[in-house]
UniProtKB/TrEMBL annotation:
Keyword Cell inner membrane part of the UniProt annotation: no
Keywords: Hydrolase, Membrane, Transmembrane, Transmembrane helix
Name by which UniProt lists this protein: Glycosyl hydrolase family 18 protein
Transmembrane region(s): 16-39
Originating organism: Neobacillus novalis
SMART domains with a match to the protein in the record: Glyco_18 (SM00636)
Length: 579
């Protein structure tokens, strides 16, 4: 009896095991089916947020305001998407817009705005403030930017388009399809939430593709993903918007730029004592400098000097400097009205002294004030160009952060504003802190030049060249320490010093220049000098030719001798490199 019971129990157990395995398999298969089968989500997601959403570049970028029939967009939208240089000037309570040929001032809550200081009257203020946020009317600024907008039907949204944007028109197929399949999805899968429902034969714009889905948009601006099979492509639309602007025609120069600065500290030089500057086609006298925080300018200009220079065939680009005063620069450059005061004076002086250009020498500026300098240049260039003046600006090589002589320059932006940037490629070694060395060794210049050309195009760049050398003195003191001092010498002064000491310079491979050294037994001092002579200047001219730069500029005319102008002849340097 016990044996029979044993066999029955075993048979029943097998059935349970087999049944359990089958059930488990069914459960696994059903789970896989539920996971992999694309059941469409019925969750709906709100596409636009707030009133008057701004549709731009395929997504919502904030919200506009509607005052009557006028649309306003936040200034932050303009700065982040259309023109980062749009600013709000706190002192004048104005929005400032600059283009290649215009400076636009739009005061808040005013029926008048100004284009190049000429008034434009409106029925409604183009600038309004709401809850601490600044808004700009769209219609008045359309003439300044290659943009257009549409108010979308059955929606409060506006669609802002830029020149060059491209999309395709499409239409849903004319067949009855399950409505879940015709819902616009937030992701290219039916399991994602949907934003809107479509109907057969409905028109859409096709803005992208991902996997087996198109990214499409309804006429009311709501977008999402839809299976490719349900959309037929039609024509391609490319947005074309042109805005007219004046093209500045620079005064013609004979060949590449060969500029020399004329250092004017108290009075202008006696022109009867200036020999011919062979090859030079621009003289840039240091005539104008910032005098006060109100934008007043110190003026050392001379009409007689200007007439003399032009009679010799030289253009005259008057230098304006910030007096190398960081505090004064901050106070004068931070406000629109003060910047305009400076610009108006420069325009007046350019007429008074018959100038062909203005050279901006802005140095020793706090890093955080760099954007003020850039904005000043943005606002100056349209006025100066309208007056027929060349706009050039002096810059340095990059020398790291928190350096008042380097880090404030926004070089790529300045290169888009000025006609020329002149890099002051010297002062590699300046004093005891740097130690004795060349004013500008050739490898140092070329290495930094290569780096700069990644930010500034060569046709806008002028290579600044030193015509002076530093005579270094390393003297051992009684306590065993070494004191290092230096003084700048003009080219003819160097030749005189070499002759007095009976020295013949030798080539220094490391600097690429001629070098001389002298030990003075009485002083217990060693003198060192890296020469600026025909050899080094020819090499600098060759660099300008090698990198196809716009030209060279020399600091300064006073330091050079007659050999300098011949050595820096870019036409001759180009002919030499082509042999």
């Amino acid at each position: 009896m016990a044996r029979v019971i044993f066999h029955k129990s075993k048979k029943g157990s097998m059935k349970w095991i087999i049944g359990g395995l089958i059930g488990a398999c069914l459960l696994i298969l059903s789970s896989i089916f539920l996971i992999l089968y694309p059941f469409a989500s019925s969750d709906k997601k709100v596409y636009f947020q707030g009133e008057h959403p701004i549709l731009f570049a395929g997504i919502q970028k904030g919200n506009a305001l509607m005052e009557g029939s006028t649309l306003f967009v936040p200034i932050t939208f303009m700065q982040e998407n259309i023109d980062e240089s749009v600013i709000y000037d706190e002192k004048s309570k104005s929005v400032i817009i600059t283009t290649k040929d215009k400076v636009v001032q739009m005061p808040t809550d005013s029926l008048t705005y100004y284009v190049n200081q000429k008034t434009v009257d409106l029925q409604l203020s183009p600038i309004i403030s709401r809850k601490g946020e600044i808004f700009i009317a769209l219609d008045p600024i359309l003439s300044f930017y290659p943009i257009q907008y549409k108010k979308l039907p059955d929606s409060t949204a506006i669609w802002i388009q830029k020149d060059g944007e491209q999309y395709e028109n499409g239409r849903l197929i004319n067949k009855d399809i399950n409505k879940e399949m015709l819902r616009l999805r937030t992701e290219p899968t039916w399991r994602s939430p949907y934003t809107a429902e479509m109907t057969k034969n409905e028109a859409v714009t096709i803005e992208g593709v991902k996997e087996d889905f198109y990214l499409v948009r309804k006429a009311n601006g709501i977008g999402g993903y839809l299976k490719k099979d349900y959309v037929s492509k039609q024509d391609t639309v490319k947005v074309k918007i042109s805005r007219e602007s004046k093209t500045f025609q620079m005064p013609k120069l004979n060949g590449p730029i060969q500029l020399t600065w004329e250092a004017v500290y108290t009075k202008n030089p006696d022109t009867t004592k200036i020999a011919d500057l062979n090859g030079v086609n621009v003289i840039s006298p240091t005539w104008f400098s910032l005098a006060g925080s109100d934008g007043s300018i110190k003026n050392l200009a001379s009409l007689d000097f200007s007439k003399w220079a032009q009679a010799k065939g030289y253009q005259v680009w008057g230098v304006f400097s910030n007096s190398f005063d960081p505090k004064l620069t901050h106070e004068a450059f931070k406000d629109f009205e003060t910047r305009q005061t400076i610009i108006r004076q420069l325009l007046h002086f350019s007429q008074m002294y018959q100038l062909q250009g203005i050279n901006f020498d802005i140095e020793n500026v706090n890093q955080e004030d760099g954007p003020f300098v850039t904005q000043f240049m943005r606002e100056a260039a349209p006025y100066l160009h309208d007056a027929g003046l060349v706009v050039s600006m002096d810059i340095t090589f990059s020398a790291g952060d928190n350096n008042n002589w380097s880090s404030f320059y926004e070089r790529p932006k300045l290169a888009q504003i000025a006609d020329y940037l002149i890099v002051m490629a010297y002062d590699e070694h300046t004093g005891a802190s740097s130690g004795a060395g060349s004013v500008a060794s050739l490898p140092w210049v070329e290495r930094n030049l290569q780096n700069l050309l990644s930010e500034v195009s060569n046709e806008r760049l002028v290579l600044g060249v030193p015509l002076y050398a530093r005579l270094w003195k390393e003297q051992t003191n009684a306590d065993g320490t070494t004191e290092v001092t230096a003084k700048a010498l003009a080219m003819d002064q160097v030749k005189t010093w070499l002759a007095e000491k009976g020295l013949t310079p030798a080539n220094d491979e490391e600097s690429g220049q001629n070098y001389a050294e002298y030990y003075d037994e009485a002083e217990k001092a060693t003198y060192k000098i890296w020469l600026e002579d025909e050899l080094s200047l020819q090499k600098r001219a060759a660099l300008a030719v090698k990198y196809e730069l716009a030209g060279v500029g020399t600091w300064s005319r006073f330091f050079g001798d007659q050999t300098a102008w011949t050595a820096l002849d870019l036409k001759a340097a180009k002919a030499l490199t082509q042999k």
